[in-house]
Amino acid sequence: MSTIESLQQKSAAILKSRAQSRGPAEKLYEGLAQRWSQITGVKITAEQTCLMLADMKICREIYGSPDEDNVIDLVNYAYLYADLTGRK
């Protein structure tokens, strides 16, 4: 199995598990966007929240030790971003 196939399987399993245990991701990211908007005084969308969390994972890879978890989370934030933008 290639690295990409392995990451796809792990990513799919995590997204499925999170959806089952925590419900729709849209609700979480809308809520997080509202909270961050209140804190910063700048309107932040759920989609932007996914991008900002992806940036955090990129920085962890750059400034920390490489970790497969960061890569899987980065892929998942990209999937969630695509899902959120596809709904509107």
Protein architecture, described:
- The structure is a single chain.
- With 88 residues, the protein is mostly helical.
- 83% of the residues lie in helices and 0% in strands.
- The chain contains four helices and no strands.
- The chain has helices spanning 3-22, 25-40, 46-63, 68-86.
- Helix 1 (3-22) crosses helix 4.
- The mean pLDDT is 92.
- What amount of the residues lies in strands? under 5%
Tally of extended strands?
Answer: 0
Mean pLDDT across all amino acids = 92
Note poorly predicted spans. none
Distance from N terminus to C terminus (CA atoms, Å) equals 35 Å
Tell me the structural class.
mainly alpha
What is the H/E order? HHHH
So how many helices? 4
Helical content, roughly? over 70%
Gyration radius, rounded: 14 Å
Spatial shape: globular
What does the largest sheet look like? Answer: none
Provide the fold topology:
Elements: H1 3-22, H2 25-40, H3 46-63, H4 68-86
Helix pairs in contact: 1-4, 2-3, 3-4
Compose a concise summary of this entry:
The chain has helices at 3-22, 25-40, 46-63, 68-86. The radius of gyration is 14 Å and the shape is globular.
Keywords for this structure?
0% strand, 88 residues
